Bifunctional NAD(P)H-hydrate repair enzyme
Amino acid sequence: MRILSPEQIHAADRFTIENEPITSEKLMFRAAKTFSKWFRNHAPNRPKSLILCGVGNNGGDGIVIAKLLAQKGYPVEVAVVRFSPKSSRDFNHYFHQYSSLFPVHEVETVEDLPPLDQYKILIDGIFGVGLNRPIEGFSAEIIHKINHSGKEIIAIDIASGLYAERASSKEQAIIRPSHTISFQVGKLAFYLPENHDFVGDLHILDIGLDQEFIQSLHAPFAESNLEDIRQMLMPRDKYDHKGSYGHALIIAGSYGMAGACALSAKAALRSGAGLVSVQCPTRCVEVLQVAIPEAMVIPDEVGHKHFAKPTLTGQFDAVAVGPGIGTHEMTQEALANLFATHEGPLVLDADALNIISQSPALLKNIPRGSVLTPHPKEFERLVGKTSNQFERLENLQALAVEHQIICLIKGANTAIGLPDGRVYFNPTGNPGMATGGSGDVLTGIITALMAQGYHAEEAAIVGVYVHGLAGDYAAEALGMTSLIASDIIAHLPKAFQKIDHNLW
Ligand SMILES: NC(=O)C1=CN([C@@H]2O[C@H](COP(=O)(O)OP(=O)(O)OC[C@H]3O[C@@H](n4cnc5c(N)ncnc54)[C@H](O)[C@@H]3O)[C@@H](O)[C@H]2O)[C@@H](O)CC1
Ligand SMILES: [K+]
């Protein structure tokens, strides 16, 4: 799904109005109807609700929502927050038409607000994507009151006070909703973990803006949804054999960290690689042969406890390095050696990234098209500290473009930076996956996909999605608290079945 800027959203709005054609009031009505339908489904018992409306188009949506809910027998009231003496044309249009259908509170100071304890749900239609400066004065006080009311809050389009595509400071007055019901496209702010409290559960509903126009816009950000992933999935043919699905090599582990190898290799096997080999220090060989009989184990020619000499990589279709390798001097040299001898992209994770962070020369020599999978701390070590996540996103884009690599930042809504500057956000996954070894599993999945012939970009996007989905199934079965990395592997089959629509 596309993520657009407020200007692009307005342009899509205008294009739809001119070309569908539809009047702007009718388009507002359509958005409100979509919201109301969701709301009636969400709150079928007709709870008493207050709709807080600003005087722009977000407030206009609120007025039409009030009319639609009142019509269905919902006890709704409206509070018009008059933050400006000017109100938008469409707001005026509907306010004059419908304001006699429900009680209206005119709010020009915080005292004008009706007592909030009489309502079960507060619907926030004060500001939408038109916000262009921090909310001040009595409107800010109202937002604090709403946030402290203890009531369920549902935001129309975007929480009032949250900037759609620049950093919002926590000191600003911003609504903290439990749900955001947004229209048509994603807004960048929704996907940044620091904004979590200002988004709640996100639902993006289709209001029929022109799809072709939306697709034609140049927008660097997108959310990878199930449909995108299905389109990227490569079909399997009846006459394929194990050679058709590639041979993956995973260079991982050190003495005491053999588990990292096992997790990556098992995940690679469960992600469809035809063959999986593991290079590990000699002291880890036996335990790995027992732990994963399906994998071949290549002992390090030199290192007993550490990765010290890369095996010849020419025969492999995809190569990953990093999980559990440590940062021993021998390992640093071995990594440099691998960069110098290996042809083609690599998957680089964990300690491989920590080693690269210490060496500008290595950073410069990362093979083009490689996939880097840092968590936020590792990413910070690679590019330096940033003061907010918008800046971090800019750094991600700059890194991917400069080195022509794919780099992701793991976490809620993992961001995947591509060499052309685009960034995909991943919607799957849950906090239960913040557990040791979960990253090793992701490395195995991405490597397996590359071994099967997926382009590195698609391997990263599909891999992150499947990893999150398997984690979601694992959490569903076992709860988030008890979830461990092996459970993610155990649920990979279900995740692949879900996205492979030929099986459903
Ligand atoms: N695709 C679209 O563009 C659609 C938009 N709709 C709604 O329209 C909203 C956008 O409406 P608007 O552009 O009218 O903007 P808003 O309703 O978000 O804001 C109203 C006005 O307040 C002013 N303002 C901004 N920040 C302020 C501040 N801190 N203090 C005081 N005044 C401030 C701005 O001049 C802005 O025009 C969307 O979020 C959505 O809810 C829907 O009606 C349907 C279609
Ligand atoms: K809002």
About this structure: The longest strand covers residues 76-81. The chain has a mean pLDDT of 96. The pocket of NAX (ligand 1) is lined by residues 9-10, 13, 27-28, 31, 54, 56-61, 83-84, 88, 127-135, 156-157, 183, 209 (CB under 6 Å).
